[in-house]
Amino acid sequence: GAVTYGLDTDRIKARIMRRTYGVKTQIQFNARLHDELHRVWCKKRERFQCRDAFLQYVSAGEEISAEAVVKKTLKKSHPTQSMVNLHILSSEDGNPIYADDPNVREEAIIQIPVDDAMDNQYECEFLFGSTTLEVAATEVETGITKVVE
Fold it and tell me: What is the pTM of this model?
């Protein structure tokens, strides 16, 4: 397999994901889906949020084309935050709900500097190469990008 790939890198067109990949974040609380232990009040958004949610980018068992990129735009949690810690997660489960579920593993943390006076957005991209996974986080206003493999 590895020798064949080395000789012909275009040979792999897609792969089946063995793990679900995503990030730890806060999302809008849904009483039918989330437990009360994860419910927190968000003053900024004036609603209840689910803390430590597992926001999925791809699911275990999903077919992903080689060189696929999955991107989502996120916002910082707190208005005075000057650094965002983006927790990259994976799980063997197809649909993990929380970042602190027993089968969830933290793969990396990307630290992104953000302006504490602004309502910053940042983009998180998962780049699925034919043999590697790379995650890039970019602060939208400044263009500062951090990458982990």
Answer: 0.85
